[in-house]
Amino acid sequence: xxxGCTLCPRKCGADRENGRLGFCRSGALPVVARAAPxxxxxxxxxxxMGSGTVxxxxxxxxxVFCQNREISLEGRGREITVSRLAxxxxxxxxxxVHNLNFVTPTHFADKIVEALTIAKPKIPxxxxxxxxxxxxxxxxxxxxxxxxMPDLKYSSREAALRYSGxxxxxxxxxxxxxxxxxxxxxxVTDGAGLLKSGVLIRxxxxxxxxxxxxxxxxxxxxxxxxxxxxFSLMSQFVPLAxxxxxxxxxxxxxxxxxxxxxxxxSLSGIENGYFQELSSATDELIPDFDLTGV
Length: 294
Hints:
alpha/beta, TIM Barrel, ten-stranded mixed beta sheet, 10 strands
């Protein structure tokens, strides 16, 4: 990576190689908070043996409601070399996990590609991101990533600005997801139902923002051939945002809100995917960022 980081759409130009941090608050080398089998993803990702998940610290979004704020906002983790990152990939693969799963990886994309070139994993690699991605960075990943698992957080520019400081998020994320689909094509599963390649789009419903959920469902339904992508409707919102600054987020989803979103999805053209139980809205799903496996 040359001086002046442009890995993500913020293109903040930070000289990370020389310790001048940008929006993601990350230097040049990867910072990892946990690397271990993880069972909290969709069944086609976690399976029986778990997903070999690497949680990277720092983030290019800083969503005010983030559940992984210890690493995304507070920077918990350990800086490691690219060679150590490659070793981590291999160590996870030796545990017979179903895939390698990179969480908030965008700001370390170049180092991840270097590590994948060294490790040469024989299992699928999952890019688990906010979808706030530049097309140039995604093209750099082509051939290294078999499964893209992007969020599609907002359809509203106003919400994207208020909660993530990224007014251009809706158009950037949609373009990124289309590029992800161009790379992988229609999703493919094996005989056990495990995802081998393709795109799995997630949407976390925010309290009071059902219109965003409806718009996201419509966009996914209209933008891809039938049975081409997977879609996951998520209810696990936990009210972690500043209560004074964001009072509208100071509650969980209501049963009525989630049932309306489920009903809308069931009437759409989307036939493959997942619902979460409303009871999943708990911090019990948040892993311990205790440097396990790092």
